[in-house]
């Protein structure tokens, strides 16, 4: 399919991108890696009049230690995450989750900011960022604000991000040696998750278990109260609302959430 005609702008700075967003309002959209936006446009599920390409801005592509956190530029590619020595030692969950996203082509183009902004409950990185208790930094002409990942998602493909805001940075606590694991259940290698479970330091993020990425709150509360892994994992689908689709029934997804949570918690416990 061919997208509806649009005009294309490639600003040379974040400020330039923000000015264009402010000028064109809801008629404009941001292009980062394009791996979610272009399919949306080709299927004509979206028809922006102006596409603002931030995919080659070096100021958005970095991974650096900042005190107790690692700061990651929104334009950092999935491949950068998986290959990062800093993440490998300080936030190994994030590097491992990035390694499971799609195939090498997808990982070389897709960005963490694009993945979080797209707000697809089937994506891997949002659940990891939730489990990590990360902070998402948004910038607009009105200034900058920091939103906890746990308060970022509002529903299917939606978040608290305003149309004139850019995700500029993701701040992730350095978890160091805390136990972690990612369990992703797919039909074939490189597929999207039917269900995924990200665990770090007793927190649990769920992929594809509702309209938006979720935390398994009942499991987390049970663990905090001293429940065994088996007891806590049995609660992993509480408060979730998975869909039935061509890949799985909702009931099968619930089963997977409980099973994968048990596996991930067991791995994380060493
Ligand atoms: C074949 C294929 C397989 C895939 N498999 C997986 C998978 O297994 N797991 C998975 O998690 N993902 C998968 N993806 C999605 C991939 O990870 C995308 O790269 C990602 O979801 C979007 O990132 P992007 O940089 O390509 O964003 P884009 O497609 O450029 O943008 C996506 C959306 O985010 C907005 N946006 C982008 N950057 C910003 C920003 N900094 N601030 C504000 N808004 C922004 C855009 O306006 C757009 O609405 C797959 C994609 C493809 C094509």
Automatic annotation (TrEMBL):
Residues 1-177 form the FAD-binding PCMH-type domain. The keyword 4Fe-4S does not apply. This is Xanthine dehydrogenase family protein subunit M. Pfam families: CO_deh_flav_C, FAD_binding_5. The lineage of its organism: Bacteria, Bacillati, Actinomycetota, Actinomycetes, Pseudonocardiales. InterPro entries: CO_DH_flav_C, CO_DH_flav_C_dom_sf, Diverse_Substr_Oxidored, FAD-bd_PCMH, FAD-bd_PCMH-like_sf, FAD-bd_PCMH_sub1, FAD-bd_PCMH_sub2, Mopterin_DH_FAD-bd. The keyword Flavoprotein applies. Gene3D superfamilies: 3.30.465.10, CO dehydrogenase flavoprotein, C-terminal domain, Uridine Diphospho-n-acetylenolpyruvylglucosamine Reductase, domain 2. Keywords: FAD, Flavoprotein, Oxidoreductase.
């Amino acid at each position: 399919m061919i997208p509806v005609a649009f005009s294309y702008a490639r600003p040379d700075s974040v400020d330039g991108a923000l000015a264009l967003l402010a000028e064109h309002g809801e008629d404009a959209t941001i292009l980062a890696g394009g791996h979610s936006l272009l399919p949306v446009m080709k299927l004509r599920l979206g028809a922006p009049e102006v596409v603002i390409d931030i995919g080659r801005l070096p100021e958005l592509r970095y991974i650096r230690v900042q005190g107790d956190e690692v700061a990651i530029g929104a334009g950092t590619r999935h491949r950068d995450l998986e290959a990062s020595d800093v993440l490998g030692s300080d936030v190994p969950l994030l590097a491992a989750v990035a390694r499971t996203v799609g195939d090498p082509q997808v990982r070389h183009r897709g960005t963490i900011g694009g993945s979080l902004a797209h707000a697809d409950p089937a994506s891997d990185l949002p659940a990891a960022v939730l489990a990590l208790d990360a902070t998402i930094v948004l910038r607009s002409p009105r200034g900058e604000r920091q939103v906890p990942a746990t308060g970022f998602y509002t529903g299917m493909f939606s978040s608290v991000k305003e149309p004139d805001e850019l995700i500029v940075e993701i701040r992730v606590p350095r978890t160091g040696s805390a136990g972690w694991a990612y369990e992703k259940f797919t039909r074939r290698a490189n597929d999207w998750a039917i269900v995924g479970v990200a665990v770090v330091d007793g927190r649990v993020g769920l992929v594809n278990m509702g309209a938006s990425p979720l935390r398994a709150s009942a499991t987390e509360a049970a663990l905090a109260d001293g429940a065994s892994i088996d007891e806590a994992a049995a609660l992993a689908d509480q408060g979730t609302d998975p869909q039935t689709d061509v890949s799985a029934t909702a009931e099968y997804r619930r089963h997977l959430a409980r099973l994968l949570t048990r596996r991930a918690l067991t791995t994380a416990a060493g």
